[in-house]
Amino acid sequence: PFVFMKNGEPVVQCLVRRDENYPTLYDIVNYAADDMNDFHNALVEIQKYYKENGAAYIDIGCGNAKLEYYALFQRLGFRVIGVLQDYYLGDNKSATVENSIVNRDMVRFRVDLNEKSMETTGYDASGRTN
Prior knowledge:
Blueprint: E1 2-6, E2 9-18, E3 25-33, H1 36-52, E4 57-63, H2 67-75, E5 79-84, E6 96-98, E7 101-103, E8 106-112
Parallel strand pairs: 3-4
Antiparallel strand pairs: 1-2, 2-3, 4-8, 5-8, 6-7
């Protein structure tokens, strides 16, 4: 587990697990954060720690309705690798609603810690060419 502190208080908690079949792949299986900036900083530190300790990849997932997490993960170099359909429905088939979207599927992301950052020169914030 990782606990990130600010002013003596825990602000981000992450549980990271190594994949038994792929020893250089780690999965952030659980996380809690009150503030997206703190979560961003924590993920940067986790990436740095695992890269320095021989990891090649880190995976993370979030609900399909958590749009702010999509943006955060992609800004940090994570790419979509799959969707686990109906992951959050469980046995009782009840789901939460966020951003006016039913949160039923888990979107999985992976970052390659050895991949160079993608150049964005020539693009504006919309992704269109200048």
